[in-house]
TrEMBL record:
The lineage of its organism: Bacteria, Pseudomonadati, Bacteroidota, Cytophagia, Cytophagales. Residues 19-184 form the Glycosyltransferase subfamily 4-like N-terminal domain. GO terms for molecular function: glycosyltransferase activity. CDD domains: GT4_GT28_WabH-like. InterPro entries: Glyco_trans_4-like_N. This is Glycosyltransferase subfamily 4-like N-terminal domain-containing protein.
Length: 416
């Protein structure tokens, strides 16, 4: 039990809904509570708490959305209420996750120390656009981020973006990768599939991808590469996850002539489909472990949890060389190339692939994906080699190896 005299850490995130940052937030909350008195804070609890940590949760009770006037008013209310919460809790340090929380954390700063946790690329995030995107990139980040006592990035390749793109002082930045519960994931991956699910996996080699169905994950071009693959050999493609692009992706698959299974429509699960949308799963790892390949077509990342989890399951990874994270995981001795790669790169711990979001080269890049996947499906020895290396690599990101870095960073900021 944490002593009452321990330092008081306030963790801030906009919400506790579905997302990789929320999962990391939960893991941090659980681990930090072993060293500090931890309280979680959110803008509101709309959507519930999908990742409960058993630590106290304080809601600022400020809604999102609305008109431009409403958004400005809500932003100001969050700052005022967080400032009051910090004072009431006598917080020693406030650590914010996600950009919206960063601004509120910085603008409510009092005597407490402030740490920002940056989860992804800012320069390449396609959601940062329009007038608000311009404001974030040109005004808010450059003017506010240097007020932080420390900025922790989850990937080394985010650092040069912050320094050159937003003028952040290099001495404020430290990289601490996400950690993974390797033993827990390995154990859960052993859970057997149902008889119907196993029949699908037995019927053909399975490609699997997991994550939200969103613009960031860029799954649509993968469907084109997969359709081309089916003209050469049999295979199945399994999507684990859900999101706002669900209908767009299923429509795209059908437009390509693919037979589509949708779990939410209560379809009977048989091997007679090409693409399987199985939705959100309490245990995604049991769908990943028996797959032939894990395919990951993201347009941008931070330090991708889904990729790391698949590698823990011992599945060979075929991933875009997107900013940021995949190269750091698969090819740690290399640096990010000046120009996007246009061919498959056999990295130390998996396959780095062209991104699938460049209109001028998209057709050629999709062919590279199709050819690379086909070659791997026909080379069991190489798949086994890459799968073994993948699981070995993830031993570098265990909770024990990573989280001590967070405790040291917090203690340094607190002068402990």
């Amino acid at each position: 039990m944490t002593p009452r005299t321990a330092k008081r850490v306030l963790l801030l995130i906009p919400n506790l809904g579905l997302g990789g940052a929320q999962r990391v937030f939960h893991d941090h909350s659980v681990e930090l509570a072993k060293h500090y008195n931890v309280t979680e804070a959110v803008f509101n609890l709309e959507g519930g708490n999908l990742f409960p940590s058993n630590n106290p949760v304080e809601s600022l009770e400020v809604a999102g959305g609305g008109s431009a006037f409403d958004k400005v008013r809500n932003f100001a209310a969050r700052i005022t209420r967080l400032r009051g919460l910090k004072q009431r809790l006598r917080a020693d340090v406030c650590i914010s996750h996600l950009e919206g929380a960063d601004y509120v954390n910085l603008l409510s700063k009092g005597s407490e120390k402030v740490i920002l946790c940056i989860h992804g690329s800012k320069l390449h995030d396609q959601n940062i656009r329009g007038a608000v995107g311009w404001l974030r990139k040109k005004v808010l980040m450059p003017s506010l981020y240097n007020r932080a006592d420390k900025i922790v990035t989850v990937s080394r390749d985010i650092n040069p973006e912050l320094i050159s793109g937003f003028g952040v002082k290099p001495e404020k930045i430290q990289t601490i990768n996400n950690f993974f519960e390797v033993d827990r994931i390995t154990a859960k991956a052993q859970e057997p599939l149902s008889a119907e699910e196993q029949a699908v996996y037995d019927s053909a080699p399975v490609l699997v991808t997991s994550g939200r169905l969103t613009i960031q994950k860029n799954q649509a071009p993968l469907l084109d590469s997969f359709a081309a693959l089916l003209r050469q050999q049999t295979a199945k493609l399994v999507f684990v996850g859900d999101g706002e692009l669900r209908d767009d992706l299923t429509a795209r698959a059908r437009a390509l002539g693919l037979r589509v299974y949708e779990a939410w429509n209560n379809h009977q699960l048989t091997p007679n489909y090409d693409v399987y949308f199985v939705g959100l799963q309490q245990n995604p790892f049991k769908y990943i472990r028996p797959a032939a390949l894990f395919v990951f077509p993201s347009a941008w990342e931070g330090f991708p949890m889904a990729l790391g989890e698949a590698m823990i399951c011992g599945v060979p990874a075929v991933t875009t060389d997107c900013p940021t994270g995949p190269r750091e995981i698969l090819a740690p001795a290399s640096t990010a190339p000046a120009q996007p790669i246009r061919q498959a790169e056999r990295a130390e711990f998996g396959m780095l692939m062209p991104m699938l979001n460049q209109a001028a080269t998209l057709a050629a890049d999709q062919r590279v994906w199709t050819e690379t996947i086909a070659a791997l499906l026909n080379d069991e020895a190489e798949r086994q080699r890459l799968g073994k290396l993948a699981s070995q690599r993830m031993q570098d990101f265990t909770r024990e190896k990573i989280f001590g870095q967070w405790v040291q960073a917090i203690n340094e900021v607190l002068g402990a």
